[in-house]
Design a protein that fits this description.
Layout (H helix, E strand, L loop, with lengths): L12 E5 L3 H4 L1 H12 L3 E5 L12 E3 L6 H15 L4 H7 E2 L1 H8 L4 H8 L3 H13 L16 E5 L1 H4 L4 H14 L10 E3 L6 H6 L6 E2 L3 E2 L3 H11 L12 H9 L5 E5 L3 H4 L3 H10 L2 E6 L11 E4 L8 E4 L4 E5 L12 H16 L13 H11 L16 E2 L23 E2 L18 E6 L15 H6 L4 E4 L1 H6 L7 E5 L4 E8 L7 E5 L28 E6 L1 H12 L1
Parallel strand pairs: 1-2, 1-5, 2-3, 4-15, 5-6, 9-10, 10-11, 16-20, 17-19
Antiparallel strand pairs: 7-8, 12-13, 13-14, 16-21, 17-20, 18-19, 18-21
Length: about 550
């Protein structure tokens, strides 16, 4: 996030896209509701009517996978009407003229045709965002143009053009000067606890700690020197989907999976299972025997967040201390102790003469000292400084107070660059054989693959099982009623679940939460087309069809014959 959570309540306009904020980030959504009650405009772009629409002044319900046309059309209108911030553009950016040329064909008329969103709604969204209009009048900040913030999540990143979509939002913010000041910016809402922190300290295949490229020899050598080795691998590694493909092909022979359940969370689950079963050796480290752990050769019992100390970096880049509340059960140990012990024993087995302290840290505070030494954005973040509210990175040295707002004076590259982004349609569109679009997501009462929350009796009582949301028109066409059983089929698999007839999804679209092992949504999603930069699969759009269970069984029997 370029900005901080607390600033949302003071925004004049909040533009939310690709995020079911109320159910996926409920605490943060309270800030949106506060802002709306104080007179802010809330503009939501989503193919599904999400709960926060109740507080929105404008809801743009676009066909799945077409939101890029809305973004480009909004910017077309902003330039056409002179709502762009020319002073900010001249001082802080480059590439504007070429960018404007790319926008010319993306008119609101074209966007309306592609998305189903009326022209007047697109133009209203452009005006409200660009000028930071409030529903109740003048900006709370009183400094001319109102302050607009963008909130987004995996509804736009888990797409074949997810990188383009994020760059387009960055273009929109720069175009209107809505970045580098309070209650503005481009703000991704992270989907899992500490996923921000994991990325910060190098748990990505192309970077070292602090987002230092592994292909940068000088950076690599500096980290290698701190770690006491001659050099570090300089090649970009395999992403999750690429690793599964490589395992299926026999190119990857072993895997070590920590705190992740790809048997429910990865696309094309049938392929994932086949890949994992192909491995010579699979280790899973987790707090429960997950679906993936059941395939493992070795399971390492880990401590949960309430059973260990350390830090968590949240979605606003805030590093916070955590403390154990109860001891770990049985032989469970904190993740860092387990991996450290494995590293030390590997050194011993391979006869490496290395200081045992390389792996066997005395405490999480010592680990943080090493993180600070090799991660420039964490350079001043140490445990004694984190008591209380913690610190937001970048915090480069021990005297630095942290950074609540990024890009206040300059961007990390100097001037912000307007990326030239063209619209791109989803990889798999509906056709006569598979006429509907499936989108996946979450529900309020469960988290990710349900490994933890479905073991909670009150949560499981409130939301005990899966279902598919189907628009009344599509349900009637398929002869389905609320509570009926139905089979959803894609080109990769089929799942059976219950029907929930709902106007929250538009005609032509169905929605399934991916929490349910009884109806694993990701058995249907596709993994054959990835974002070319981030290598993310397109979870949010794939073609499906509906069948009654007996019809599906008859079709399967006929195919077998």
């Amino acid at each position: 996030m370029t900005n901080s959570i607390r600033e949302i309540r003071d925004a004049d306009c909040i533009f939310i896209t690709g995020s079911n904020t109320a159910e996926s980030h409920p605490v943060l959504s309270y800030e949106v509701v506060r802002a709306a009650k104080r007179g802010a405009h809330v503009v939501i772009l989503d193919p599904r009517r999400v709960p926060l629409v109740d507080h929105a002044t404008l809801f743009l319900q676009a066909k799945p996978g077409t939101d890029i046309y809305i973004f480009l059309a909004m910017m077309h209108v902003i330039v056409r009407e002179g709502w762009d911030d020319q002073a900010f553009i001249a001082e802080r950016t480059e590439g504007y003229d070429a960018f404007v040329e790319v926008l010319r064909p993306y008119t609101p008329e074209r966007a309306a045709l592609m998305t189903g969103v009326p022209i007047e709604q697109i133009e209203a969204a452009a005006r409200i965002y660009a000028l930071g209009e409030r529903a109740d009048g003048a900006s709370l900040y009183g400094d001319g143009r109102g302050h607009s913030t963008i909130l987004y999540a995996m509804g736009i990143t888990q797409r074949r053009n997810g990188t383009d979509l994020v760059m387009t939002l960055a273009n929109l913010a720069m175009l209107c000067g809505q970045v580098g000041k309070p209650s503005t910016g481009v703000n991704p809402l992270r989907g899992q606890s500490n996923v921000q922190g994991a990325c910060d300290v190098g748990c990505l295949v192309n970077v070292l700690p602090g987002y230092q490229n592994v292909t940068d020899a000088a950076r690599r050598q500096a980290v290698a020197a701190r770690w006491g080795v001659e050099d570090l691998p300089g090649a970009v590694g395999l992403t999750v989907v690429e690793a599964m493909d490589a395992a299926a092909e026999g190119k990857v022979r072993a895997a070590y999976i920590m705190g992740e359940n790809p048997m429910l969370s990865d696309p094309n689950t049938t392929h994932v299972e086949a890949a994992l079963r192909t491995l010579d050796f699979l280790v899973v480290q987790d707090i429960f025997l997950s679906d993936t752990a059941q395939l493992a050769h070795v399971v390492l019992p880990a401590a949960s967040s309430l059973e260990k100390d350390g830090t968590i970096t949240n979605t606003e880049r805030r590093v916070q201390l955590i403390y154990p509340v109860i001891p770990p059960p049985g032989v469970a140990r904190p993740d860092w102790e387990i991996t450290g012990e494995i590293g030390a024993r590997l050194d011993e087995r391979l006869g490496r003469d290395r200081d045992p302290a390389t792996w066997r840290f005395p405490s999480t505070a010592a680990i943080m000292e090493e993180i600070a030494a090799v991660t420039p954005i964490y350079g001043g973040i140490l445990h004694p400084r984190l008591e209380g509210a913690g610190l937001q990175w970048p915090c480069p040295n021990a005297d630095h107070p942290g950074t609540p707002i990024l890009h206040t004076a300059a961007f990390s590259r100097g001037k912000g660059f307007f990326n030239l982004v063209e619209a791109q349609d989803p990889a798999e569109l509906p056709d006569a054989e598979y006429p509907l679009i499936l989108s996946t997501g979450r529900v309020l009462y469960h988290y990710h693959t349900g490994t933890m929350t479905r073991r909670s009796a009150p949560l499981n009582w409130r939301e005990p099982g899966g279902y598919v949301e189907i628009n009344p028109e599509d349900a009637a066409a398929a002869g389905l009623a609320n509570g009926d059983e139905v089979v959803i089929e894609s080109r990769r698999g089929a799942v059976q679940t219950w029907v929930k007839v709902s106007t929250d999804v538009p005609p032509g679209t169905v929605f399934i939460a991916f929490h349910w092992r009884e109806a694993p949504a990701n058995m249907l999603t596709q993994d054959h087309t990835l974002d070319p930069v981030a290598k993310i699969p397109e979870y949010k759009v794939c073609a499906v069809r509906l069948k009654k269970p007996h019809a599906a069984q008859e079709a399967a029997a006929s195919a077998a014959d």
